[in-house]
Amino acid sequence: MNNTGVEHSGANLTATLEEIESLIALNATAVSGLARIIGVRLAKGMHGGIIFHSSLTARPRAVQRLHLASKAFVLTLSGSRRTAGVRR
Prior knowledge:
This protein is mainly alpha-helical. 52% of the residues lie in helices and 0% in strands.
């Protein structure tokens, strides 16, 4: 199960480049890498599945946009895995 996430405090325009890169590295890159590792094993016949969990708020605020965009990536990734034959 992938359930990672980090959010920085403050508006996106006040975030440092390092904060942005850290958020993307954990919320998108790490999830993609883990899903690939397990997906390859599943494709070779290993039993199990990948469960993607991503939090999205119903009423996003300006300070959450980068976080929400990274979580939308996870939702899109989970849909692409399902069409590739990996259960969501």
